[in-house]
Model the fold of this input.
Amino acid sequence: MSKAYSMLSVLFLCFGCAQNAPIPAEDDGAPHSEDPADSGGDDSGDDLDGDGYGSDVDCDDADAAVHPGASETPYNGLDDDCDPDTPDDDLDGDDYGSDVDCDDADPMVTTPSQIWEGDLSWTEAEESLCDTGEALRIAGDLNLINTPLFDLTALSCLCAVDNDINIIDNASMLSLVGLEGLQGVDQDLTITDNPLLMSLVGLDNITTVDQDLIISSNTDLVTLGGLNSLRTVSGDLMVTDNPTLVNMVGLGRLQHVSDSFTISNNASMTSMLGLGSDKMRYEDLWIRDNPSLIELSGLEGLTEIGENISISRNSALISLQALSGLTRVNDDFTIEANTALLTSEAEWLIYDSLGTGNVGGSVYINGNAKD
Done:
């Protein structure tokens, strides 16, 4: 066989292979689009929060932690994965949410077997409420005001309160042990003026407060330990006038405060240590009048303020470095009257780290230390 004939045979065979080969996808004449589930995001829409998903598929384009494919965090009141079929509450599927379900991990346990109709204001007569061991729901407020109680073990059968819980002015109360059956608070939770209360142990299973949470004027309170499961406060969160509270340890899972988060007049507080969630978003944040506050460690996970932030009149504050992860403030940013804080530190945070283009309102830097 001649070399010329051999070469011609090879060319003929290769021509046949080319005729039978599949056409590459980019050349087949049909339009193609990448599946967002494969790419991890979607380039369409505005994507205001920079999470890789446009506003046409992102159900909350103001929160980078919320997007298709995100992990759903139970009981935080958010549709983290933008899939309404993924349960945020009623995890056992028995049609009872955690606010009334005494065990949201067991579909065989639903409503309590005894119900107190209306408000319950504690007297010695109520000490026998849990003697039968039957789960108790209060269809009104729970008022523990000016009681002689040392703890709340007499309420160990309590698993739901339909309205407010008020723990106020209890001169002998040392702990909240006995409230472990509560998984959520339907309205306000107020803990004020309990001079011997040192921690919040007993509230360990509460994941949500549907309105305000107020922790104020508890003279011996040194830790917020006991709120370790709390993820969402759907109203205001106020931690004020607790003179021995040194930090925010106990709020490590807190992700979302729907209204104002106020931390003020806590004489011994030195940092925000304990606010450890990496998905933190607060509507308003007010850090004011904490005379021992040196720096803001604990706020490293804060990425967005829904409206305003004010850091004011903290006379020992010298550092704002913990706020370097902040990417957006949708209204005003105020840093004023922190007499030990260099003005250059405040300017670095707003002008260099955050950028004034990411502040939706006005910037106020006044009355801080001169360089």
In short: The two ends are 93 Å apart (CA to CA). The chain is about 10% helix and 20% strand. The first strand starts at residue 114 and ends at 117. Residues 231-366 form one domain.
